[in-house]
Write a structure and sequence with these properties.
By secondary structure, this protein is an alpha/beta fold. The chain contains 11 helices and 16 strands.
Length: 331
Amino acid sequence: MLILGHDEVAEVLRDREKDLVELVRTAYELHDEGRSAVPHSTFLRFPGDTRNRIIGLPAFLGGDQPAAGMKWISSFPANVEAGLARASSVVVLNELTTGRPVALLEGSLISAKRTAASAALAAREFTEPGTGGVGLIGCGPINFEVLRFLRAVLPSLAEVTAFDLSPDRAAAFARRAADELDLPVAVVDDAHRAVGAHPLVSLATTASTPHLDLRAARPGAVVLHVSLRDLTVEAVLAAQNVVDDADHVCRERTSPHLAEQRTGGRAFIDAPIGGVLRGRVRFTRDPARPLVYSPFGLGALDMAVARLVRDEAAHRGLGTTVEGFLPRPTT
């Protein structure tokens, strides 16, 4: 069993933004071709607790580099107040011939980077060339990774407008963006100002219920609805909607799920991103309406990234190999 900690995962993934965007693109195309298996995620919730949860995402991804396993990721928002990360995660990879687990990876960075790669892929696909700025709602680690990946795939990106419920967190975010990404961040005190500041918007908050409309958005804005529960039903229904997988997105009281419950169907969803990337689905942008991209975050993406990390780490001699973790053969 190969065990890879956070620092080792970070070493493998450092400066690999463009590689990961292409990896995620391939994973979405394989998923659209039916060459994946992504059972519904399992949400472990606790009696009387509406904020905290642990999610299990089993998945298989085929193709030239097949991978199978499971991500087990917790979300405890109050951790932030204690100086801890909101999310913590492990990923288990299984060997496809025997089914035996062969690697255990710290998964929070894998999860954050595949999420950001998915958002950046959609931004590259749907925004107009020369898009120069992005508005960010939520100044946590996910939106920082989104910004890092947007910087890699949108060379013209030069302006950032950010809002967070915590002014201190927003200020720290701005300082970090200046130091690490050489990007100036204008912090504003109203979410709608951030929504309307640029033709590209990224929503990555810990909201559990809708709290935001898009009345301030520019015509034709692209909204990366990463956290899935920010937008009102009215905002979703007034927009064009692209998802990664409708069956996954329309669950667990996400904004698209609430829109489905309101309308009795999924006609408001215009296309899956895999179908758009493959040219299987004809999708025409309406310049007068915002486009909302709502990615549930398929476990197949985690498997693709984890497989890359495991293979590269093994090649470099990183990690700790534990002998005797599994039972020895009986014959």
